[in-house]
Amino acid sequence: MTDSYDRAQGVLLRQDLQWVASLIEAGSNVLDLGCGDGELLEYLMSTRGCRGTGVERDPQAVLQAISRAVPVVELDLDVQLGEFGDDSFDVVVLSRTLQAVVRPKEVLQQMRRIAQRMIVTMPNFGYWRHRLRLLGGKMPQSKDLPYSWYDTPNLHHTTLLTLEELFDDVGLAVRRRIPLNGDGRPPRLPIGWTQRSANLLAGSAIYVLERRT
């Protein structure tokens, strides 16, 4: 997948958000948690006919989202998602944000209540390059984990294996797993690759989740 660009709208999406956008049906009502500057929602609204609401608490990012004409509310994901009603959206997106919240399990539980379908992206602490750095006595750093340990906004690190255990505990079924390498593209996994292969070779992953009944 190459850079997604709509010349009429002038919207350019970064690589991982292209994959997220491709997983959302046209016309969907989308809640984007930790929406940042509203890049994804702007694209979905202008090119896919979606309705959208963003949630962000960084004041500068909120202003940027508003400048894109993206509806955005300033809420704390850890304690204020109860503002949204049950099944009030078609899909909830949480892109590269779960590791930065204080209560990841509670956030996932709220997402499960708000929509039947969820899309979550997460950096993978089990990536082979990270393992090598740890063996060398250093904390991992990469495009997916770009911060030094002392100034990172990330509160929680996990491997894909343990992340999926959390999904199961919350009552979420994994409908699709898209592993991505450090450049935001699917890595060349071996034929018959397994969950453990993805855990080793992917710098991050996108998950399509559904509420398990």
TrEMBL record:
InterPro entries the UniProt entry points to: Methionine_synth_MetW (IPR010743), SAM-dependent_MTases_sf (IPR029063)
Keyword annotations of the record: Transferase
Record GO terms (molecular function): transferase activity
Domain of life: Bacteria
Name assigned to this protein: Methionine biosynthesis protein MetW
